[in-house]
Amino acid sequence: MSALSLGEKINKHRVEKKLSLDKLAALAEVSKSYLWELENPRTGKKPLKPSAEVLAKIAAALAVTTDYLLDEKATADTEVLQEAFFRKFNQLEPEDQEKFKQMLELWNKKK
Q1: What digits encode the pLDDT tens for the residues 13-43?
Q2: What are the two backbone dihedrals, phi and then psi, of residue 76, each rounded to the nearest 5 degrees?
Q3: Quick check: 76 and 42 in contact, CB under 8 A?
Q4: CB 3.0 to 4.6 Å from 58: which of 28, 63, 84, 102, for a disulfide?
Q5: Radius of gyration of the chain from Cα atoms?
Q6: How many CB atoms sit inside 10 A of residue 53's CB?
Q7: Residue 19's CB: how many other CB atoms inside 10 A?
């Protein structure tokens, strides 16, 4: 697999998650045009460099890590996806984390 740029990774995961530009822009709290420019850098024009805060919001919405988005050689392997999942889990309120744990226990009992 060839290296993917930041914009290519954002586009790839946005499309895979069936998120429109509008929806991802809303989740990341950026404008649709800014997100479009990230995904489609113009030749000869300096590429946009999102702030750490914006990058973190985009990564969270796509369920990947910021490290993955920034490293052109990184792939979305299981470790990256699990790290992003646990980051989201840790941001939940304690009572929501507990509900999630209970659902997991019930699901495991079914097996």
Answers
A1: 999 999 999 999 999 999 999 999 999 887 7
A2: -80, 75
A3: no
A4: 28
A5: 16
A6: 10
A7: 16
